[in-house]
Amino acid sequence: MPDALAPLQKTHLEALERRYAEVMGALGYDALLIYSGRPARHFGDDQHANFCSYGHFQHWTGQAGLAHSWLLVRPGQRTTCFVHAPDDFWHLPPGLPDEGWTDYLEVISGRFGTPPAVKASRLAVIGDVDEETARTLGAESNPPALLIALDEGRVCKSEYEIACLSEANRMALCGHRAAKQAFLAGESELDIQLAYLKASRQRESDVPYGNIIGLGAHGAVLHYQHYDTAAPVSRHSLLVDAGHRYRGYCADITRSWPGPDADPTFAVLITRMHDIKQQLVAALAPGVEFVALHQRMHQLLGELLVESELVSGSAEAAVESGITRAFCPHGLGHLLGVQVHDVAGRTSREGMPLPPPPEHPALRLTRELEPGMTVTIEPGLYFIPMLLGPLQASPAGSDVNWSLVERLLPHGGIRIEDNVAIASDSVRNLTLEHE
């Protein structure tokens, strides 16, 4: 069956070749080896951890599970992919997908547990390669200037990449709909997870990050990592932060739902958090400073806390006193691509550090927005005892309606997250277009 995305992928690969030739020429390299990586073995065991190939390898091939493989880039010559696919009766060797890159690149299958020999006057190798291997190759290992330039080349996405991100969103939303139905049917966290995986057509080892399936108070644990096997006694709420990987590209979507035992105020808060998310998406545009947009999220959150009578006084005071940070300690969003938290979100184009403000250390994107960036927008509102306890003991705590907080604690929290591609004159919400 012909690959419908092959023309877009061809254009993407042509642009990659030009970019790599420009960067390598400027830095004086005539050849570059990119290693996909290898699975790590658990200490004292013969079992391996889940594997994901190196991002720059995926940028060319989209292959997240291809281990022990190499990509050879030489400006002016056809790029070669050495696919590690040895004869093996223990495991099925990887097969090539029916995708455009397999025709565009020269693909050589075989045994490549050791890297292919390369004749070059100046060779670089990047990826999880030890110094001994680099010395044997006569290569410079992970040169910082080269990595900075290649990371920057992944910041703005091609039309092909956005098409892949869109499909990843479509498949992830199939899982979110199934998760909601399992929740309303009274299922456990584990059963909700299994419903998500089945509907989104994924193995648990293939998801781009560990799915967060949090019932009730578990929704207040930002990276909740367990799945209760027993059905809940009370169904106050469900928070699902879960994605999908398509040709290497990651969806990262979060939805929160009230349950039949939810306090009416919590259901209203979810609706209003959707509104806040929409306001923030509408504000996306080239030239917008993401740090300022993150601060705008806190202003809107302060307004919601006052409007819902969780906080007395003004929204401005709620922000300035740190109240909003106690209710939302994470950043507004991050770059998205072949990595969920994609590279170069906290550096300038030249690779200079752009640290987040001291009061917002968890913010993962501190750059000015550009056409081609794809970002997550994920405002949150949580009832986290670890953060609310110190707030209650502080002078600002007198402005908080603690009886209402106590009623909402069993609901955990709310996060609403969409994936948005930014163009020169518009934005494209990849999540909402499939919801």
TrEMBL record:
<feature type="binding site">
    <location>
        <position position="378"/>
    </location>
    <ligand>
        <name>Mn(2+) 1</name>
    </ligand>
</feature>
<dbReference type="Pfam" id="PF21216">
    <property type="entry name" value="PepQ_N"/>
</dbReference>
<keyword id="KW-0378">Hydrolase</keyword>
<dbReference type="InterPro" id="IPR001131">
    <property type="entry name" value="Peptidase_M24B_aminopep-P_CS"/>
</dbReference>
<feature type="domain" description="Xaa-Pro dipeptidase N-terminal">
    <location>
        <begin position="10"/>
        <end position="150"/>
    </location>
</feature>
<dbReference type="InterPro" id="IPR052433">
    <property type="entry name" value="X-Pro_dipept-like"/>
</dbReference>
<feature type="binding site">
    <location>
        <position position="334"/>
    </location>
    <ligand>
        <name>Mn(2+) 1</name>
    </ligand>
</feature>
<dbReference type="Pfam" id="PF00557">
    <property type="entry name" value="Peptidase_M24"/>
</dbReference>
<keyword id="KW-0464">Manganese</keyword>
<feature type="binding site">
    <location>
        <position position="417"/>
    </location>
    <ligand>
        <name>Mn(2+) 1</name>
    </ligand>
</feature>
<dbReference type="InterPro" id="IPR029149">
    <property type="entry name" value="Creatin/AminoP/Spt16_N"/>
</dbReference>
<feature type="binding site">
    <location>
        <position position="252"/>
    </location>
    <ligand>
        <name>Mn(2+) 1</name>
    </ligand>
</feature>
<feature type="binding site">
    <location>
        <position position="241"/>
    </location>
    <ligand>
        <name>Mn(2+) 2</name>
    </ligand>
</feature>
<dbReference type="InterPro" id="IPR000994">
    <property type="entry name" value="Pept_M24"/>
</dbReference>
<keyword id="KW-0224">Dipeptidase</keyword>
<keyword id="KW-0645">Protease</keyword>
<feature type="binding site">
    <location>
        <position position="252"/>
    </location>
    <ligand>
        <name>Mn(2+) 2</name>
    </ligand>
</feature>
<dbReference type="InterPro" id="IPR048819">
    <property type="entry name" value="PepQ_N"/>
</dbReference>
<dbReference type="InterPro" id="IPR022846">
    <property type="entry name" value="X_Pro_dipept"/>
</dbReference>
<feature type="binding site">
    <location>
        <position position="417"/>
    </location>
    <ligand>
        <name>Mn(2+) 2</name>
    </ligand>
</feature>
<dbReference type="GO" id="GO:0102009">
    <property type="term" value="F:proline dipeptidase activity"/>
</dbReference>
<comment type="similarity">
    <text>Belongs to the peptidase M24B family. Bacterial-type prolidase subfamily.</text>
</comment>
<keyword id="KW-0479">Metal-binding</keyword>
<dbReference type="InterPro" id="IPR036005">
    <property type="entry name" value="Creatinase/aminopeptidase-like"/>
</dbReference>
<comment type="function">
    <text>Splits dipeptides with a prolyl residue in the C-terminal position.</text>
</comment>
<keyword id="KW-0482">Metalloprotease</keyword>
<protein>
    <recommendedName>
        <fullName>Xaa-Pro dipeptidase</fullName>
        <ecNumber>3.4.13.9</ecNumber>
    </recommendedName>
</protein>
<feature type="domain" description="Peptidase M24">
    <location>
        <begin position="164"/>
        <end position="422"/>
    </location>
</feature>
